Amino acid sequence: MSEEKHNFSAGEKAAMEFFELNDLFAAAASVLVFENKIVIDENELKPTPEPSYELLGDLRPEPQCYVAKTYSRGVVRLLMRGVAVSEEPLVNFFVNAFAYDGGVYWDQVINETPVLPVMSVVLYLGADPWSGPRSMLEGMKDENGPGQADKLWNLASDYKMKIIELAFLKDEQIALLPPDLQALLRGLQAKREGREYEVPTAQLKHAQQTLALLKALEI
Description:
- It is built from eight helices and five strands; from the N terminus they run ααβββαβααβααα.
- With about 220 residues, the protein is an alpha/beta fold.
- The protein has a five-stranded mixed sheet with strand order 1-2-3-4-5, sandwiched between helices.
- Strand 2 and strand 3 form a beta hairpin.
- The chain is globular.
């Protein structure tokens, strides 16, 4: 994903490079997104082209830090989020994510290919609990104040997103993942708990990307 005109954090950039690796993307999607109810084969993953956004004309959503891949049953997009609340209003984050999903759906329609589901999931890299909204309407209510939470909101279509708080995953989930992902998650656990973490470097398959990510996250 292009980083132009957007100040992604070092951790977000390193996470994007980390999850570009097919085996790590497949493991994260299978275990963290689908909870092993669907197991993705890394060999069937293909990069998902950037949507054309034909319906938007010259407009384009703000760049987001993500890795998107297509497999036989759908499109999975892992969004990297370094912080839960930043200078960017989170309602904009959800609207941009919604525009991406809609763009992928529209391209499938106009290209007359089978329409596959698009699943955008946030991988939250922070050590503190996610404190932001988990849906577009929730973010809009937060910005407009509690007085706006009337019947109108109940009629509006919402856009919800799964937020995976990596630092708070259970040990049994982590144990199902390959060593590089385990190192990332154990490191985030240690950061959350305020203790040192010794990286099992000899066990890593992708030591360069894993160590770069841990360093960028100050672990």
